[in-house]
Design goal:
It is a single chain. The protein has 158 residues and is α+β, with helices and mostly antiparallel strands. 22% of the residues lie in helices and 30% in strands. The chain contains three helices and nine strands, in the order αββααβββββββ. Strands 5-6-7-8-9 form a five-stranded mixed beta barrel. The chain starts with a helix and ends with a strand.
Amino acid sequence: MLNRVSLIARGLAAALLVLVSVRLAVADERRLPVPAVSIRAGELIRDDMITERAFAPNVLGVAMFIEGRQVLVGRMARRALLPGQPIPTNSVEDPFTIARGAMVKVVVEDSGLSIVTYGSAMQSGAPGALIPVRNTDTGVIIRAIVQPDGTVKVADGS
């Protein structure tokens, strides 16, 4: 009878230990946004494309992953994002304001003087990006900074 009680006590202690370790593991896990569907490179990320999934800290390693859904929505995938996989921070970027080959307004400002002309973007770019632009009148390639309104401003030294 004493043996039976001791076996039951050991079984209960083992079950309690398992429950405590499971609770600790759940407390340490991180919930990260992950794609619910495959997202192709260049595709804008919508809210319905994202879900959340729990990850154990040792599974994630030292890589930097996006931790908030609000960081993803409205941005563009730089590479294919697979369903259920955490999203590295360098896998998304702001959507392009200017597409490669588009006609853009080129603004040159210096000492209160402003000159406006048009050019062809030789590369896509988001606001703040430095892109090459071919002047349509002269054919000269200049470097310009993409502005939020879709124009480009000639960079110093171009």
